[in-house]
Amino acid sequence: MKNLFKTALAFFVLAGSATFTPAQAATGYLVSQEFSGGYLICNYRVPGYSGLVSVKLQPGRTCPSTWNF
């Protein structure tokens, strides 16, 4: 009986964890851009995040006005 209970409990724990969904993607809005070490650094503000998020791009590219994280 104990093994049946443990098996059922393990099933419900695993079934519950299978319904977990990752956080939704957030959109960042371009705040500034700069060159550093030969790369273009794009700084984005993401709503709900306290700070800037930086993206390093290859030379010759431009910073898009929004970036999905």
The CATH architecture of the domain at 24-69: Beta Barrel
Distance between the termini: 48 Å
Largest sheet: 4 strands, antiparallel
Order of helices and strands: HEEEE
Cross-sheet strand order for the largest sheet: 3-2-1-4
Q: What does it look like?
A:
- The structure is a single chain.
- A hairpin with a 2-residue loop joins strand 1 and strand 2.
- With 69 residues, the protein is of the alpha+beta class.
- It has one helix at 2-18, and strands spanning 27-36, 39-45, 52-57, 66-68.
- Helix content is 25%, strand content 38%.
- The longest helix is centred in the first third of the chain and has 17 residues, at 2-18.
- It has a domain at 24-69: OB fold (Dihydrolipoamide Acetyltransferase, E2P).
- The model is unreliable at 8-21 (pLDDT under 50).
- Keywords: Signal.
- Residues 1-25 form the signal peptide.
Could you give a quick summary of the protein structure above?
The chain has 69 residues and is an alpha+beta fold.
